[in-house]
Amino acid sequence: MSAGRLCRKGSCLLLARGDPVLGATAWKHKSFKTYTAALKQEDFSKLISTEMVKIQKKAKEALPGSDWSPFKSMDHLPPEHADVVIVGGGIMGWSVAYWVKKLQTQRTTFKVVVVERDPSYSHASTVLSAGGIRQQFSRPENIQMSLFGADFLRNVNDYLGIENGDRIDIQFNPSGYLFLSSEKSAEILEENYRVQREQGAKVALLSPDQLKKKFPWINIQDVALASYGLENEGWFDPWTLLNAFRQKALSMGVLHCHGEVVGFDYVTREMLTAEGDSINLKRIKQVIVQTQNSLETQHVECMAVVNTAGAWSSKVAEMVGIGHGNPGTYEVKLPVEPRKRYVYMFHCPNGPGLDCPLLIDSSGAYFRREGLGGNYIGGMSPTEEEEPDTSNLDVDHNYFQEKVWPLLAHRVPVFESLKPLDTNMKVAVPTQEAELLRTVRN
C-alpha cells in the first residue's frame, strides 16, 4: 500500500505508514497499529482532519500555488475544468500532452488532461507493436516526420529527461529496415527511394548480388531489388518510450485520468453555405468521462479535445456526429477502424545475428531479431479476404504455421528449423506501412 493512502481493514481505518509528514507528527513516538486501534472512530476522524489541515498548510507553504495532496489516487479522477482533454493515453496521447505543455506560451496555468480507459495497456497498440522507426515511405511528409523522430529518439534524454531522474534507455537497435521487392514492384520501390533521398534519408538500393554479399543468409531467388536503411532506422522498446513521455508530461503538470470518454456535450450553431443550404456546426463544451470501476460520470469543461484513441478513434468521433452529419461537414466517417494483427515470437539458434535488419519480404511477411539469443518476432498482414474478426483477441496459431512460417523459411532457409514461442497479438489501425506491404506483395 503506498504512503498516504487510506484503506479499510476490519472495522477501522488505517493510514499507511511511510508518509514523511505524518512520520514527523502524530506517529512519531507511537506504534502505528497500537495507536490507531485504541482510538474511537470519531476521535480518529477528528485526528485525521486535524492532521490533514496541518499537512495542507505545510504543503502550501512549501509549494505555493500547488494542489498537492498525499492521496495519490485522487490524481486519477478528472477535474471539472481543463483547457485541453486528450482522449487516449497511448504514446500518441502522451506525446500530444508533452508537446502542448512544451509549446505553451501562456504564463498562467494551462491544464491538460489525458484520459485512458486501460491503464494496464493490455490492449494498447503502442506496447504490443514491433517498435520500429524508418524513413522508407512514399510521401515526403512522412519521411520528414520520421527524420525528426529519429533525432528525437537519439536525444531522448534531452527531451524527456527529468531532473534527478533515471537516464532513459529505449534500447534502440540501429539495424535498419530492409525491403525486398519482386520484378512487379521494383519500379515502385525505386520511385520511393528517389523521394526518400530527396528528403535527406540515408537509404541504399541493393541489387540481388549486393544483397547476397551483405546478407549471405538471405535466399535471393525472386528478389529483383532491395532497399536498405543506412541510418536513423531500427527498433526500440515502445513501453519505455511511452513511460518516458508519460512521466515527463506528468512532471510538467499534465493530469491523467483512468476512465473512458462516453460522450460529449456540445452547442450547435446554424450557418448558411454559399449555396444557401443550412448546416449545423458543433462546438464541444464538455467531455463526459466514466471513471474506472464506477458507474458515475464526470463532466469536464474544456476548450479543445484531441482524439488519440488509436484503433477506436472513429468511435470517439461518432460521439460528436462525425460520419452521421450534414453533407460536406460531418457526413464523412473518420477512416480509422481496428485491424487484428498477430506478432509471433520464435527461436532459431542458427538464425541471423547482429547484422539482422527488420526485413520485409516481397510476400508481406516480416521479422526482426529480439535480442541476441536467437529469438525473433515476425508476422504478416492478411489480405482483405483474410481479415480476422476483431470481436475477440484470440491468437490464430495456424496462421503462423500455414501462412507466415513457409514464407519466412523460403526467404531465410535456416528458419526451416525455427521453434514458435510465446505469441502476442495487437489491435492496430491501417498505416502507411500496411499499404506499402500490400503494394510490395502485389
Molecular structure report:
Helix 4 (91-102) packs parallel to helix 10. The protein has helices at 20-23, 32-37, 41-62, 91-102, 125-128, 140-154, 156-160, 186-198, 208-214, 238-251, 313-318, 397-411, 432-441; strands at residues 6-9, 12-15, 84-87, 112-116, 132-133, 177-181, 203-206, 225-229, 234-235, 255-272, 278-291, 297-301, 304-307, 339-347, 358-360, 365-369, 375-380, 419-428. The strands form 4 sheets. It has an 8-stranded mixed sheet with strand order 7-8-6-15-16-17-14-18, sandwiched between helices. A 6-stranded mixed sheet has the order 12-11-10-4-3-13. The chain has a two-stranded antiparallel ribbon with strand order 1-2. It is an alpha+beta fold and 442 residues long. Among the domains are: 6-68, no CATH class; 177-236 and 338-441, 2-Layer Sandwich (D-Amino Acid Oxidase, Chain A, domain 2), CATH 3.30.9. Residues 83-414 form the FAD dependent oxidoreductase domain.
Tell me how many strands there are.
18
At CATH level 3, the topology of the domain at 177-236 and 338-441 is D-Amino Acid Oxidase, Chain A, domain 2
Radius of gyration: 27 Å
Shape: globular
Give the helix level as a range of percent.
Answer: 25-40%
Strand order of the largest sheet: 7-8-6-15-16-17-14-18
Query: Main beta sheet: strand number and arrangement?
Result: 8 strands, mixed
The CATH class label of the domain at 177-236 and 338-441 is Alpha Beta
Low-pLDDT regions:
1-41, 62-75, 429-442
CATH superfamily of the domain at 177-236 and 338-441: D-Amino Acid Oxidase, subunit A, domain 2
Alpha-carbon distance between the two ends: 56 Å
Structural class computed from helices and strand pairing = alpha+beta
The overall pLDDT, averaged over residues, is 82
The helix count comes to: 13
